[in-house]
Amino acid sequence: MFWDLLVPVDEQVYGDAPIPETCPDYSLTPFRHQPKPPAASALILGRPREYHPDTLLPILKPIWFAAFQPCGSRLVALLPEWVPAYEADHRRLDADLRESLLSVSARTLDRLLAPLRVSLHRRGGTRPGNLLRQSIPIRGEWTEEGPGWLELDTVALCGGSLDDRHLWMLDGVDIRTDWTGQRALENRGQYCTLTQLKDMEASLPFPLLGVDSDNGGEFINHHVVAWTNQRPKPILFTRSRPYKKNDNAHVEQRNWTHVRQQFGYERYDNPPVAELINALCKGALGQMQNHFLPTCKLAKKVRRDGRTTRVYGPAQTPLARVLAAPQVSEEKKAELKRLHTQINPFQLSRDIERQKKEIEAIRLFQA
After folding, report:
1. CA 338, CA 104: separation in Å to the nearest integer?
2. Cα–Cα distance between 182 and 169 in angstroms, integer?
3. Is residue 75 within 8 Å of 67, Cβ to Cβ?
4. Which candidate, 49, 44, 6, places its Cα nearest to that of 24?
5. CATH of domain 133-364
6. How confident is the model at residue 118 (pLDDT cuts 50, 70, 90)?
7. Which has fewest Cβ within 10 Å: 30, 119, 144, 230?
8. Considering the entire predicted model, what is its pTM?
9. What is the pLDDT of residues 144-163, one digit of tens each?
């Protein structure tokens, strides 16, 4: 019976607390409160921490900012070369601290530097060019091997007002090595664009074999077509599909990392600024981007269970890829190696900031 479960109050266990006078003679034993067992101490799983953020961040911050805020994978690849440069430019590091910097993982670096990251938005200003469009083939997948194949694009330095009275940036990247070049244009006229294309070609450490652009009129014109065809070995000229920005994904990415991160979204409408920007891009800025900033390249795509996974190769600098390319002459490789031993990334960073301040002063000057 249910009442058989009831027991007298004095037979129940109340611990050290006295039995209250108002307590009834019987209570329900099955629902009697039982004291909770003491909580077990939390078990911390995982590998113990091998670094201290307060110790690493003061060293990582100047390297990260001088390298234009790379992701963790690229930062891991550049640290073996940048840490000795930091010691030569700033101060010597303890052996334990140096070992921690060189052994930290890419994901740990991303977590440490996450509060410092700043996100910006892109803007575009491409207008379609109808001239000669049908005679220029549309580029499909890149199947060519070796360096010498450039994607081209222009970026408006308009400050949000596209009125063609501002400067433009010509941006180019080699598909196989990630070697880049940027040039300022006073306008997107055919002559001005072609002049800077010739200058960019002369600065490449390898022969130019082909170019691929969007459908803008600065590229789709008789001047550029003649430049690619009227030579002993013509250059292959292709274009992307109209209104398909992802066809030029390589150079679109550099529009952000190599143009917007350096020159922002401000308006540049003072013509003398173009010469200063070109001096910066041919000098300190170009050397920093091609000699000391590693990039990750897609190695393959793996399709499994309806999902496509992208597998990237190890991060390398454009210089390392150029030196490993058999198509580049030994004389040019020796020249690049000599130049690399003569430059320091932190000195380049200071030169970049100094020249950018001069550019900003001229940009704001109104005659």
Report:
1. 31
2. 7
3. yes
4. 6
5. 3.30.420.10
6. low
7. 119
8. 0.74
9. 889 999 999 999 998 888 88
